[in-house]
Write a structure and sequence with these properties.
The structure holds 2 protein chains of 2 kinds. Chain A is α+β, with helices and mostly antiparallel strands. Helix content of chain A is about 35%, strand content about 30%. Chain B is globular. Classes of the chains: A alpha+beta, B alpha/beta.
Chain lengths: ~80, ~220
């Protein structure tokens, strides 16, 4: 099955890259843009067929490597 | 003093580090490769130098921190062996959770390569015992992800326990690090990480040798 992890800086952590994107959007004339934050999307193909088991494994992957939980939050999505 | 320098693919500052360690101690450091599962026997100090291990993929230091040799480094640190991480080495030590906090993208988003003023904040560590609190050392930095971050509680503990070893002084903070933090240590005091490169300010050819006493501090500490 296919799985996806969305990784974002924690809300309390400043995101200078997001800020630079917001400035660039404003410079292009896009008005009405509030806070912009940048993250990462990682897609994985898993041999596992049980969605619950896949989610458990993904959680472990996130805690051990994919996210740095000191500064990042993660969200796991499993494609049915 | 016997030291070991740990190498990962993409590390590129090991020659400067090996030279500085040899200059201070008179002994050539061992070199450990990332696939090694053990450190050379009897080392007093393990150093992780700077560079771009694994091309900074995922996060700076993230992949290196999970490589086989790091399990040996973590085990050695738990036994009290001294560990020093510089630049990418600092990033690897935070990713390995040997040091608190994280190194984020520089606040100005640009790679910075310049000489900063480094203030010694704690003069009783294995890397600073030959200096005095408040000493200011010129020291080069060269990094893209040196913006030190720790949550409020961690920061309070670091400051309260004197675990901020170095700060950027006199408005030279190059990366937006919280509280101008340039280097920190663990609770036990045997693991130190810093973004600046003291190994590049130890001989006349570097423009000055102001950072040599840092390396002499380790030699003295190990001999004591």
């Amino acid at each position: 099955m296919k799985a996806m992890v969305k990784i974002m800086l924690r809300p309390a952590v400043l995101d200078p890259q997001g800020k630079a994107i917001a400035h660039a959007l404003a410079a292009l004339g896009f008005s009405g843009v509030g806070e912009v934050r940048q993250g990462k999307l990682i897609t994985l193909e898993l041999d596992e067929t049980d969605a619950e088991k896949a989610r458990e494994t993904m959680k472990e992957m996130c805690e051990k490597l994919l996210a740095n939980t000191v500064i990042e939050d993660y969200e796991i999505e499993i494609e049915a | 003093m016997q030291s070991a320098v740990v190498l990962f693919p993409g590390i590129n500052r090991e020659h400067d580090m090996i030279r500085a360690l040899e200059l201070a101690s008179g002994r050539k450091p061992h070199v450990a490769w990332h696939t090694d599962t053990e450190l050379p026997k009897g080392v007093d100090l393990v150093v992780i130098p700077g560079g771009f291990s694994y091309g900074d993929y995922l996060r700076a230091g993230a992949i290196a921190a999970r490589s086989p040799i790091m399990r040996a480094v973590i085990a050695a640190a738990e036994k009290g062996v001294k560990v020093l991480g510089v630049c990418n080495g600092f990033q690897i030590l935070t990713e390995a959770r040997l040091l608190p906090g994280a190194l984020m993208r520089n606040a100005g988003l640009k790679f910075v390569c310049r000489t900063v003023k480094l203030s010694v904040e704690n003069d009783s560590t294995f890397f600073t015992n030959r200096l005095k609190k408040g000493d200011i050392l010129p020291c080069p930095v060269a990094h893209h992800d040196g913006n030190y971050y720790a949550d409020e509680e961690t920061l309070k503990r670091l400051e309260g326990e004197g675990r901020v070893v170095f700060r950027y002084a006199e408005g030279t903070n190059p990366n937006g690090s919280i509280n101008d933090i340039a280097g920190v240590m663990n609770a036990r005091g045997n693991v130190i990480g810093m973004m600046p490169h003291p190994e590049d300010r130890v001989e006349a050819l570097h423009g000055g040798e102001e950072c040599l006493p840092l390396f002499l501090s380790i030699v003295e500490e190990v001999a004591a």
